[in-house]
Amino acid sequence: MPFKTGGNSGDGGSNDMFEIRVKKLKDDLNLIKTDLAVMKANYATKEDIASVRIEVHQSIATQTKWIAATMLGITGLAIGIAKLIF
Q1: Number of H helices, E strands in the chain
Q2: DSSP secondary-structure letter at 11?
Q3: What confidence tens digit (pLDDT) does each residue in 16-52 have?
């Protein structure tokens, strides 16, 4: 919307319209700031990602150890039962 040139005659001319537009821009800017603050709060930092990566690797290593130990235990148990039966 182009601005009218000239003074304000008091009949709700260009200055009133300009103030309304500026107020709307300020309100929109406040909404943008709020949205940006929420987005920043939900970002994962490099440190967060690194710590999760370490935890995942540790969990995989622990799980692998448990699976190997369980397999050895079951194998030993099966051999023991087989010796008793046969």
Answers
A1: 2, 0
A2: S
A3: 999 999 999 999 999 999 999 999 988 888 999 999 9
User: Helix-strand-coil percent breakdown of the chain, rounded to 5?
Assistant: 80, 0, 20
Give the span between the Cα atoms of 16 and 44, in whole angstroms: 45
d(CA 3, CA 19): 12
Q: Please tell me the pTM assigned to this model.
A: 0.52
Q: Torsion over CA of 15, 21, 26 and 30, rounded to 10 degrees?
A: 160
In angstroms, rounded to a whole number, what is the distance separating the alpha carbons of residues 15 and 19? 6
Cβ proximity of 14 and 6 under 8 Å: yes
Cα–Cα dist 13/3, whole Å: 10
